[in-house]
Design brief:
With 520 residues, the chain is α+β, with helices and mostly antiparallel strands. The chain has helices at residues 90-100, 154-161, 165-172, 197-207, 217-226, 260-270, 298-319, 323-342, 351-384, and strands at residues 34-35, 39-44, 53-55, 62-65, 72-73, 78-87, 128-139, 143-145, 175-194, 232-241, 274-282, 293-294, 400-402, 417-426, 434-440, 445-452, 459-462, 477-483, 490-499. Helix 4 packs antiparallel against helix 5 (217-226), helix 7 runs parallel beside helix 9 and helix 8 (323-342) runs antiparallel to helix 9. It is elongated.
Length: 520
């Protein structure tokens, strides 16, 4: 991601303290010391990585190579497998992020590589789920630098011989890229969205614990049956890594649910595995004079990892909103991601900056998540529109429509449900008496009631509402007519419960979402 956001001011750390004191063998490090793991496998392979290059675990930057010429031992055996999984909870999203994009310590940061771009397509909420159908062609082992006889270059060895450990670390980092695992990945991403929680739950039940094999006709049929509800919409994207750009024999039909088997076969016939996972080795495995400890609390690295995880989750949570709702926080999320990226190299050494960015990201994630809950709440109100009586059909009792119970109230105190009331009463006169209520609200109505305050109160009915909408719920006014019984009076009270329209992005009376704005 290319950004021009300047980093927050970072405090300076004296360079001579970075390597820390030598630790006596068998001595337990204190809580302010991190002992670096000597072998880090399964690290996301970043752009710019090449075997032999160094990596700084604190800043995450790619460094020069400290190694003398070496031999690479290539992996010999590959195999293929298919995987099918569903993403239906926040914990599953977090596991997806951890498995696909998160490196150890401060290595990797927020950089989305080509193999992790698919995370931008993932959606998860009470109204969204994602199914991943993945075909992997992977070598079983890593292509690895031969360790027997591996030595440092003359320049690197001279620094160590002169005891210039910090200068060595500044130039070459803590680890070297000692291996990579080559993979080719075919990943179909199906995002399933619903306008009701019940409809999405039916999909989850129909699919079951085991996702159908989406690369077979039977699996496609089972998937189509599970998602046949009219309240369900499906979007699809295909991500292929290790696929030559000009591979021959591309299927003549567009990629989609029913053509996945053709595309998978095309992929298997043409793919060429590329580096996808890296293995990092600490330099102490070559020379034991290099300390494995850093004067940094392990908790700092945990906090950095949590910040990256929440930032990924922030983007996914925003993406799970309807497009017309995303604009409320899109610029803030983009700015926050840019700030985290701009400060990535300083996060471990500057705890105040880390704390500020963590607090900002958590607060923004809460705000976006609350917006998601508001959307779900209003979708439930939209469903309740069906309980309202038709326009001009007389009613003779007090009934309350909608609900003012917001399930996320404790976490979203800004989402206040207000009320407005108007009453009208007339004493006895000959014939029928009628009165039109017109009660405006400052935003979408989530509940309303016409209360008849006496037993012989006549009838009432809905008039046509404003904005050519026949429903009071989600409208911004209520239009009701009351009529007394013959030679009788009446006493009625109309109450509406509503939320301020400023809390609802692109509010359109009578609807949950507005139409997407046209491109300029």
């Amino acid at each position: 991601m290319s950004v021009n956001t300047p980093p927050l001011e970072a405090s300076q750390v004296a360079s001579e303290t970075l390597t820390g004191p030598a630790r006596v063998p068998g001595e337990q490090p204190d809580a302010s010391t991190t002992t670096l793991i000597s072998d880090l496998a399964n690290q996301p392979w970043q752009d710019g990585y090449t075997l032999g290059k160094g990596i700084n675990a604190v800043t995450g930057v790619l460094c020069g190579s400290a190694l003398a010429p070496y031999t690479v031992v290539p992996a010999q055996y590959s195999d293929s497998r298919d995987e099918f999984s569903s993403v239906t909870s926040t914990s599953e999203v977090e596991r997806l992020i951890s498995g696909s994009a998160s490196g150890s310590y401060n290595i990797g940061g927020l950089n989305l590589t080509a193999s992790t771009e698919y995370l931008n397509q993932v959606k998860q909420s009470k109204l969204d789920m994602t199914i991943l159908a993945t075909s992997l062609v992977s070598f079983r082992d890593y292509d690895t630098i031969e360790h027997n006889g591996l030595q440092f270059s003359a320049e690197a060895k001279q620094l160590l011989d002169e005891g210039k450990l910090q200068e060595f670390r500044n130039l070459y980092g803590d680890y070297y890229l000692g291996g990579h695992k080559r993979m080719a990945t075919f990943r179909a991403v199906y995002t399933i969205s619903s306008d009701t929680e019940e409809a999405l739950q039916e999909v989850k039940v129909a699919i079951g614990a085991k996702v159908p094999d989406m690369f077979t006709a039977e699996g496609v049929a089972a998937f189509k049956q599970a998602t046949s509800n009219s309240h369900i919409s499906i979007s699809f994207s295909l991500d292929m890594q290790g696929m030559p750009p000009n591979a021959p024999g591309r299927p003549p039909v567009p990629a989609g649910v029913e053509t996945m088997q053709q595309y998978q076969q095309w992929f298997l016939n043409n793919c060429v595995p590329v580096p996808d996972r890296g293995e990092l080795f600490h330099y102490s495995q070559i020379d034991h004079r290099i300390p494995t400890t850093l004067p940094i609390s392990p908790d700092i690295f945990v906090a950095v990892g949590q910040l990256y995880s929440e930032t990924y989750l922030l983007r996914i949570t925003l993406h799970s909103l309807p497009s017309t709702w995303q604009s409320t926080y899109a610029s803030q999320v983009q700015k926050q991601v840019a700030q985290v990226n701009a400060n990535a190299q300083n996060l471990v050494d500057d705890e105040p900056v880390l704390q500020v960015l963590s607090a900002q990201t958590t607060a923004l994630l809460t705000d976006v998540d609350n917006l998601n809950h508001r959307y779900i709440f209003l979708q439930n109100i939209r469903k309740m529109q069906a309980t309202e009586p038709p326009v001009s059909v007389a009613q003779g009792s007090t009934v309350r429509y909608g609900t003012s119970v917001y399930p996320n109230e404790a976490q979203d105190p800004l989402f206040v449900i207000k009320s407005a009331t108007v009453s009208h009463a007339e004493s006895w006169e000959m014939g029928h008496m009628e009165h039109d209520f017109s009660l405006p609200a400052g935003g979408p109505i989530v509940q309303w009631e016409l209360k008849q305050n006496r037993s012989d109160n006549g009838v009432w009915w809905k008039n046509h509402q404003h904005n050519n909408v026949d429903f009071v719920l989600l409208n911004n006014s209520a239009e009701i007519r009351c009529r007394s019984d013959y030679d009788r009076g009446y006493d009625n009270t109309l109450t509406v419960w509503y939320v301020d329209k400023s809390l609802i992005p692109n509010y359109t009376p009578g609807k949950v979402t507005a139409s997407a704005p046209e491109a300029e």
